[in-house]
Amino acid sequence: MDRSRAILLTGASRGLGRATALRLAASGWTVYAGVRTTADGQALAAEAGSGIVPVELDVTSPEQIAALDDVLPERLHAVINNAGVIADGPIEAVETDRLREVFEVNVFGCIAVTQAVLPRLRRGQGRVIIMSSLSGRVTTPWTGVYCASKAAIESIGDALRIELRPWGIPVTLVEPNATATDMWSDADAMVEATVAAMRPQHRVLYADHIDGVRRGVPTMQKRAVPVSKVVDVVEKAVESRSPRARYLVGIDSRLAHIGAALTPTRVLDRVLAAAMGFPKRADVSRTVNAHQR
After folding, report:
1. CA dihedral in degrees (76, 246, 221, 34; nearest 10)?
2. Which of 113, 188, 227, 292 has a CA between 20 and 30 Å from the CA of residue 181?
């Protein structure tokens, strides 16, 4: 195992993180794969055959982040901040604890892990790779909390890129749209769980929004980018001598970004609302009934 080609990857237990860990290990990298449980790490290492060093890492745990000092080599080629969670639903209905959880994982966890390994990146002339999203640049209704966390990460990445430039540490943001992981294949179940957890008055107020989201899920699932395409881009960001500041993944992402940038805000608002199947006007009687509950 060549520890001079060492990478720390967070969120490797499932989905995109797991696929990335397996690809990089197969390409000859030593991947210190952050997983949530011992069983997850054992399964990942068994599938890889070699090149995977499982590390139990909850990015919200200061203790587990500090313990990286006892595991990681002196030099790292890259840290790939992939760990992330999503919260959906209208902003009014998202409980504060859930909002905090999303930012703890997607934003604060990313910052904390990067801070912890920067000395190793300096020694290894390494790089920082952040799994962001098109959602960090184009905000969509119903996923506003998730979009806000990714927008925060976009700003963090931009600041880091400039701050770390004197040490020659590139910072790259990878920006896929919806990716065909289990998160998106289970999107209908996620929506139903979100609706079930909403307060009764919110279910009444947002009934038309909920119907629109339910109708739109199959289309979003069909348009999801294959995991392999995203992994291709991550691998490029790892191996390129001069990685880009940003990689938009897939033609849909590029078109959506360009379209959003060129469209007046009021028009874009109407387009996004229509795409989500949201009503143009609230039902007054439903609003009254909801507030009487």
Report:
1. 10
2. 113
Model confidence pLDDT, tens digit, residues 41-53: 999 999 998 899 9
* CA 86/CA 186 separation, integer angstroms: 12
Supply 245's token pair. Answer: 């500041």
Give the number of C-alpha atoms closer than 13 A to the C-alpha of residue 269, restricted to the C-beta side: 5
The separation between the first and the last C-alpha atoms of the chain, rounded to the nearest angstrom, is 63
- Domains defined for the chain, CATH in brackets: 3-180+225-256 (3.40.50.720)
Identify the burial level of 244 via C-beta atoms within 10 angstroms of its C-beta, where 0-12 means exposed, 13-18 middle and 19 or more buried.
middle
The model scores a pTM over 0.90: yes
Tally Cβ neighbours within 10 Å of residue 36.
17
Cα–Cα dist 149/137, whole Å: 11
Burial (0-12, 13-18, 19+ Cβ within 10 Å), 236? middle
User: Annotated active-site positions, please?
Assistant: 132, 146
